[in-house]
Amino acid sequence: MARKNIVAETSNKQDVADFLNKARDLSVQAPASGPAQGRLIFAMDATASRQPSWDSATMLQAEMFDAVSGLGALDIQLVFFRGLSECKASGWCRDAAVFGNYMTKVSCRAGHTQIERVLAHVEREAANKKIDALIYVGDCIEENPDDLAPIAGKLALKGVKAFMFQEGFDRKAQFAFGEIARITDGAFMQFDASAVQKLRDLLGAVASYAVGGQDGLAVYQEKTGSNDVLLLGNQLRKKP
Known about the structure:
By secondary structure, the protein is an alpha/beta fold. The protein has nine helices and six strands. The radius of gyration is 20 Å and the shape is globular.
């Protein structure tokens, strides 16, 4: 549909300035029905011991959507594993209430980690459409880190940055998560179960980065004043 000529030839300098300011405002707000400007996969360990963390993440997930308000549209997909061999992915979502409702229906079950399957799923998704970021939240790993490195390399080739957030300080997980982040040019951060605000800020930071890149991340850091967001940004800036 052709656009109307809003600025007439007789417009004065102030009219033109006002129009340009309005155009800039519109340019950073994507319509709800328009294409996503960022695509993010949010993956979590949903094995038995993770129920308290899952419940916290369910409450915090809205920050990813709130963080990009005014920046652009963000589509998020939930991926989780639990039990002996269950690894599932939701549809893509752009609404915090819908996404939160999906998470509340998931209960954690005893089982082993399936991080390899998570990475393989992300790689398949990235073959179809660009994935700007992967957030993974977990506390341990029961797989061989050497088996994960090749898949992380495939993610790097597709431009997917992995943001690996470790709850607690398990040394094996620290090494494996750090390597996945390094290979994909992402970032690795640790937090403890009581650091709810830290996880909230980290989720919002990655969402802002997925939509607006370094500029989006800088806007979020300025808004929150979070030192954790600053540290995450510093990891990204160190990448070539």
